[in-house]
């Protein structure tokens, strides 16, 4: 048997033990956690929509009309008209022919990759991809070839040498711990050249990138391509929960029949689908939220320039402050918490050894005064 106490003590010694905190307020820039009030830079609520009253009201109306649970999988009687309408709205929003709702982004990645690839296929994955894409590749039994982060030359070498029956290039659009973007147009060109799919996980770009918040495809002005498979999660900028995959109608139909994480699970509550539809109107209709984010990012960058820790190269709301040592990062996080600021330490294995960091996550609900308060606290701790 595993000696859990001894193993947990080892994690403590390495500065790698993780503990949950209890949120007892709505999500937002200011939260109450473990009974104390904090200024928070610790969520992915980039547009400040997680507690928006219009989204909550849409969910409440659906709860009153249709109840709490679906009681069945999508392929039985769980596929509600609200799911159907949300899928149509999501597909139109990102400029794709069809979309399919999944309960989580993790389940979507597992379902899509294993539905497309088997031991005769190969997946070519950026080395910094999210853990769900790594797990999906392993579960598919396909050859899993990882290329150096955003290294197109290395990727092309791997593609050129492959004789796999089916090939899939998989990448985050915005890398969750670094905040930088994948070169999606160039990746699509390689997919065309080497007869591969391109699977883009836009979890942290949807709602944030593009003039109307339609994500990385709008950001790069990419046209529809049958080789492109697009995923976005709905629990970050959209402020709700779940995920969707978009692409051709044939792709969606194939996933309905072959994606095990779609087939063998109960459908999400209809209220969440109603909330998603309401969120899309706010994402496109309130561009000032993205404009405010740009202002806050610039203010943070200017203020951090005088600190001993560098910000990593990112133009997104993910602004990682690179510390390096695990214990030093924990001490800095603890010091901020003592000053009423919530900013968790990110450590291995989430990030590579020696690159522990504070992942500053900005929201449109933050103010310039909030940024200044964080900078003042960092200067004190420096």
CATH level-3 fold name of the largest domain: Aspartate Aminotransferase, domain 2
Radius of gyration computed on alpha carbons: 21 Å
Specify the helix fraction band: 40-55%
Q: Which architecture of the largest domain per CATH? A: 3-Layer(aba) Sandwich
* Helix and strand sequence: HEEHHHEHEHEHEHEHEEHHHHEHEEEH
**Would you report the number of β strands?**
13
Percent in strands: 15-25%
First-residue to last-residue Cα separation: 44 Å
Provide the spatial order of strands within the biggest beta sheet: 3-9-8-7-6-4-5
| Class based on secondary structure composition and strand pairing | alpha/beta
Total number of domains: 2
What is the overall shape? globular
Q: Largest sheet at a glance?
A: 7 strands, mixed
- What is the CATH superfamily of the largest domain? Type I PLP-dependent aspartate aminotransferase-like (Major domain)
Would you identify the regions where 5 or more consecutive residues have pLDDT less than 50? Answer: none
List keywords for this structure.
382 residues; Aspartate Aminotransferase, domain 1; Aspartate Aminotransferase, domain 2; 2 domains; 7-stranded mixed sheet; 3-stranded mixed sheet; 13 strands
Tell me what the structure shows.
By secondary structure, the chain is α/β, with parallel strands linked by helices. Helix content is 43%, strand content 17%. The chain contains 15 helices and 13 strands. Helix 8 links the parallel strand 6 and strand 7 (197-201).
What does this entry show, briefly?
By secondary structure, the chain is an alpha/beta fold. The chain is built from 15 helices and 13 strands. It is 43% helix and 17% strand.
């Amino acid at each position: 048997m595993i000696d859990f106490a001894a193993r947990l003590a080892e994690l403590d010694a390495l500065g790698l033990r993780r503990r949950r905190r209890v949120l007892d307020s709505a999500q937002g820039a200011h939260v109450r956690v473990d009974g104390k009030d904090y200024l928070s830079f610790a969520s992915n609520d980039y547009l400040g929509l997680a507690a928006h009253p219009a989204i909550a009201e849409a969910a409440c109306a659906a709860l009153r009309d249709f109840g709490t649970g679906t009681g069945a999988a999508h392929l039985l009687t769980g596929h509600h008209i609200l799911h159907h309408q949300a899928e149509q709205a999501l597909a139109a929003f990102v400029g794709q022919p069809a979309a399919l709702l999944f309960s989580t982004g993790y389940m979507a990645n597992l379902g899509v990759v294993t539905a497309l690839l088997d031991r005769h296929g190969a997946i070519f994955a950026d080395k910094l991809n999210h853990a769900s894409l790594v797990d999906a590749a392993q579960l598919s039994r396909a050859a899993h070839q990882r290329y150096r982060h955003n290294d197109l030359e290395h990727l092309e070498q791997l593609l050129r040498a492959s004789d796999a029956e089916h090939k899939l290039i998989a990448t985050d659009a915005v890398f969750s711990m670094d905040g930088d973007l994948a070169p999606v147009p160039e990746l699509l060109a390689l997919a065309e050249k080497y007869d591969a799919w391109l699977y883009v996980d836009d979890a942290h770009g949807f709602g944030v990138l593009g003039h109307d918040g339609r994500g990385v495809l709008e950001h790069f002005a990419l046209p529809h391509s049958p080789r492109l498979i697009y995923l976005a999660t709905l629990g970050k900028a959209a402020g709700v929960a779940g995920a969707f995959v978009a692409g051709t109608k044939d792709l969606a139909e194939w996933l309905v029949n072959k994606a095990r994480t779609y087939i063998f699970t109960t459908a999400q509550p209809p209220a969440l689908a109603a909330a998603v539809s309401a969120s899309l109107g706010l994402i496109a209709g309130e561009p000032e939220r993205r404009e405010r984010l740009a202002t806050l990012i610039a203010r943070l960058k200017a203020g951090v320039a005088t600190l001993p820790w560098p910000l990593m190269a990112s133009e997104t709301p993910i602004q990682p402050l690179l510390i390096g040592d695990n214990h030093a990062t924990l001490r800095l996080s603890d010091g901020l918490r003592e000053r009423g600021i919530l900013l968790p330490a990110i450590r291995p294995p989430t990030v590579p050894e020696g690159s522990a960091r504070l992942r500053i996550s900005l929201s449109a609900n933050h103010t310039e005064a909030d940024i200044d308060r964080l900078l003042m606290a960092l200067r004190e701790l420096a």
